[in-house]
Amino acid sequence: MKAYVTEKPRHLSLTEVEEPEVGPGQVLLQVRAVGICGSDHHIYLGHHPYARLPMVQGHEFCGEILRYGPECKETLPEGSQVVIEPLLRCGTCYACRQGRYNCCESLAIFGVHRPGAFQERVVVPEYLMHGSDDLEPQVATFAEPLSIAVQAVKRGRIQADDIVLVLGAGPIGLATLLACKDIGAQVVISDVMASRLEKARALGADQVFNPERDDPQALRAYTGGGVTAVIDAVAVEPAIRLGIDLLRAAGRYVLIGMSGKDLPIPISTVVAKEIDIIGSRNSSNVFADAVALLRRNVSKVEQIISVSEGLDTLPAMMDYSIEHPEKVEKMVVVL
Ligand SMILES: [Zn+2]
Ligand SMILES: [Zn+2]
């Protein structure tokens, strides 16, 4: 079968690979759609902190059940479309025993540490499947980025009476906007790209903020003295300063964005305001919630995704989505 293998930075090569073996508790899927994520850009460009090349990328995917291996529960009929929570965990480490398998000490992610969905077929454990027959394949793949947002909202204990500043209006920032609005919170979203702020407005942001153009004091006034939570999907120094500065005392600062380097955090302000700094990685026990959130937001998700037809369009779409962030929020390749 055909697979795109990232051999070395900036080289996605079409390769003929062996059909995968279907072991106990596993399912063979025909890939129907796969999203290209910001972390895929990092892997492709060769500066992802955890990924090693060569690798078949693709962790945001849905597929059709072709065949169950032995010892499966066979909860869904063959031919069903499923979207996959792409996290393999050990189940025994401290994090796993707390139910926080998203940061398992031996975590393996499809498309990062294990072959992902930049190929025709893929084998996954049955327990990672979520039925999605009612969703278009390109829409269903967005359950994965939404799960990241739902996790951040859970970690930040976001409630309806919160005013949340979302830093970054890329796919994860926009997914976070949808997750916060679903709860009923007010959302201010910040980005330096005007096109993304426009999209955020259309998707329901209460206010948008461009740090290169707008005055933080006006934003403080708009929020009546500051925000109660920040969800940071960018992790760059000026954004952290802005977020900590605009946060009210007793607020929460949730970090989703990954940075290749350590960034300074204004510690004295964190202590003075007793701010909770909270890391949020992948998601745990909320993937079904993310699929449900997706079902409530199909028309909005359709505004976030761009679709390309055919596995062979993958290399061009990888480059295009890297070079044109002003035109593409989330690129999805439909097979
Ligand atoms: Zn992703
Ligand atoms: Zn573990």
TrEMBL record:
Its cofactor is Zn(2+). It holds the Pfam family ADH_N. InterPro entries: ADH-like_C (IPR013149), ADH-like_N (IPR013154), ADH_Zn_CS (IPR002328), ER (IPR020843), GroES-like_sf (IPR011032), NAD(P)-bd_dom_sf (IPR036291), Zn_alcohol_dh (IPR050129). Coiled coil: none annotated. Residues 7-333 form the Enoyl reductase (ER) domain. GO terms for molecular function: oxidoreductase activity, acting on the CH-OH group of donors, NAD or NADP as acceptor; zinc ion binding. PROSITE patterns: ADH_ZINC (PS00059). It comes from the Bacteria. Keywords: Metal-binding, Oxidoreductase, Zinc. Signal peptide: none annotated. Belongs to the zinc-containing alcohol dehydrogenase family. This is Zinc-binding dehydrogenase. The lineage of its organism: Bacteria, Pseudomonadati, Pseudomonadota, Gammaproteobacteria, Pseudomonadales.
